[in-house]
Amino acid sequence: MDVAIVGAGFTGLWTSIRLLDTDPTLRVAVLEADRVGWGASGRNGGFCAASLTHGLSNALLHFPDEVDVLEREGVANLAELVGFVRAEGIDCELEETGTLEVAVAPWQVDELRDAAELATRHGHAVTFLDREAVQALVHSPRWLAGVRAAPDRCVMLNPAKLAWGLATAAERRGAVIAEGSRVRGLRRHAGGVRVEVDGGGTVDAAQVVVATSAYSGWLRRLVPRFVPVYDYVLVTEPLTPVQREAIGWRGREGMSDAANQFHYFRQTADHRILWGGYDAIYHPGNRVMPAHERRPATYDLLARQFVDAFPQLDGIRFEHRWAGAIDTTTRFTVTFGETMGGRVHYALGYTGLGVGSTRWAAGILRDRLLRPDSPLLDLRFVSSAPFPIPPEPVRTPAVELMRREVIRADDHEGRRSLFLRALDTLGIGFNS
Ligand SMILES: Cc1cc2nc3c(=O)[nH]c(=O)nc-3n(C[C@H](O)[C@H](O)[C@H](O)COP(=O)(O)OP(=O)(O)OC[C@H]3O[C@@H](n4cnc5c(N)ncnc54)[C@H](O)[C@@H]3O)c2cc1C
Predict the structure, then answer these.
(1) Does residue 414 carry a pLDDT above 80?
(2) Whose CA is closest to 259, among 413, 111, 410?
(3) Is the dihedral angle over the CA atoms 388, 393, 396, 398 positive or is it negative?
(4) Phi, psi of 34 (to 5 degrees)
(5) Torsion over CA: 11, 256, 121, 416 (sign)
(6) Helix (H, G, I), strand (E, B) or coil at 431
(7) Probe ligand 1: pick from 292, 350, 359, max atoms within 8 Å of CB?
(8) Of 255, 313, 304, which is closest to residue 134 (Cα–Cα)?
(9) Quick check: CB of 263 below 6 Å from ligand 1?
(10) What DSSP line would sit under 110-136, residue for residue?
(11) What domains does the chain contain, in order, with CATH numbers?
């Protein structure tokens, strides 16, 4: 095998496609522990954003010299992603609606206005909406203001369907996808790498790409790079025409609120509302397991918050609920690296914004393997690493403290404590 890719989420699947589009003669295998799209890729909110940097202000904080190029790359990446979906005929319910972010507390109104001005200065097509204007668009007594952004910065889609479509596209190009193949370890072998699979099987490859996101604890050297945090989602029953009329929202924009602990919500193709976010839960020891997806208190809280936002829909049933693990880094952006003398490359750490940016990261992984002279590899965004996260037993209290401080900021009109401001100065944060 020329390249073995571990993980069949967006990162792994896009990497196989981008490698084979560049060199169709490559022999590429994708080894997936469970099923295609089983991880975050098949269970996220479906906001496919242009931003590679978890937003503009985060880019300005961490990569001020590279903002323009990262913004350009992000917009081009999203346009290419949409073009690919259309060209390949992938039915993933893609809707070019753009987004609408709303203020749900007075302090967020000024923040949104400032954010809109900043975005406009950087060429985004955004509009600030006052209370009346935003409530006219989507009827909720809670919205105090909003910022609407054009679809060149974000489209909505059904992520599981995208993952399945990418798998078909990868196989059409010659990739072999092996589901039910959990990788246990990697060993140097005969100038390449021996990939050890659960059950005793092995795959020998010249190079390996690790694309296991929040589940990357199996490769010990990745543990300081990320923390897995669980994010929770509810989906309502389909809304009746009367219920749809009652909330407006004809533009079907992807919506979110502007709190630190924020909700994201959108309409599905079959007229349900997907409502997720708010809690971001870390389990000691970087543990990821299906048991963590069951958290009744969080689902109940989300349901109450939904009715608070849309009192017209009181009594609606939630027919689906699920959770997934997000690979959070201290600077909220993907991090790249290599080990075993350049035979193994990895990309992880999208921090809740990987639906679009995984395709771009896959291009970087492709360049690392096939085009080492690509100028993109020299970006500090690509070549530098985020501030490492300490090991246990310090990790759990550190994450908890940051989480509590972020919640506290929401309760104190957005004012960040001395502790959070000190971390901001060091470029360390906690987000989902
Ligand atoms: C609830 C939730 C909501 C989100 N909402 C959004 C959103 O609206 N917009 C957005 O941009 N981003 C969102 N995200 C983040 C986004 O989904 C991720 O950034 C993105 O899907 C990461 O893709 P990935 O391929 O790197 O990882 P994953 O999709 O997690 O794929 C990793 C794969 O590796 C496999 N694997 C793990 N260990 C092994 C092993 N040892 N051997 C073999 N295979 C292994 C897993 O089974 C999995 O399929 C959300 C995430 C969650 C959890």
Answers:
(1) no
(2) 410
(3) negative
(4) -115, -110
(5) negative
(6) coil
(7) 350
(8) 255
(9) no
(10) HHHHHHHHHHHHTT--EEEEEHHHHHH
(11) 1-95+156-226+329-389 (3.50.50.60), 99-150 (no CATH), 395-426 (no CATH)
DSSP 3-state percent helix, strand, coil across the chain (nearest 5): 40, 25, 35
Q: What pLDDT is recorded for position 418?
A: 76
Calculate how far, in angstroms, residue 326's C-alpha sits from the geometric centre of ligand 1: 7
Q: How far apart are CA 160 and CA 40, in angstroms?
A: 9
How many angstroms is it from 335 CA to the middle of ligand 1?
Answer: 14
DSSP 8-state class, residue 322 = E
Contact 377, 368 (CB under 8 A): yes
Helices (H), 3-91: 10-22, 56-62, 67-88
pLDDT at 143: 97
Tokens representing residue 277 in the block: 């976010």
Q: What one-letter code names the amino acid at 378? A: D
Q: How far apart are CA 263 and CA 101, in angstroms?
A: 10
**Residue 357 pLDDT class (50, 70, 90 cuts):** very high
**Mean confidence (pLDDT) of the chain:** 95
What string of DSSP letters covers 22-41? H-TT--EEEE-SSSTTTTGG
Distances (CA, A) of 313 to 16, 89, 140, 242, 317: 43, 35, 10, 10, 9
Beta carbon of 230 within 6 Å of any ligand 1 atom:
no
Amino acid making up residue 367: D
Measured over all CA atoms, what is the biggest interatomic distance in the chain, rounded to whole angstroms?
68
Task: Decide: 11 in ligand 1 pocket, CB within 6 A.
Answer: yes
Determine the distance separating the centroid of ligand 1 and the alpha carbon of 261, expressed in angstroms.
Answer: 20
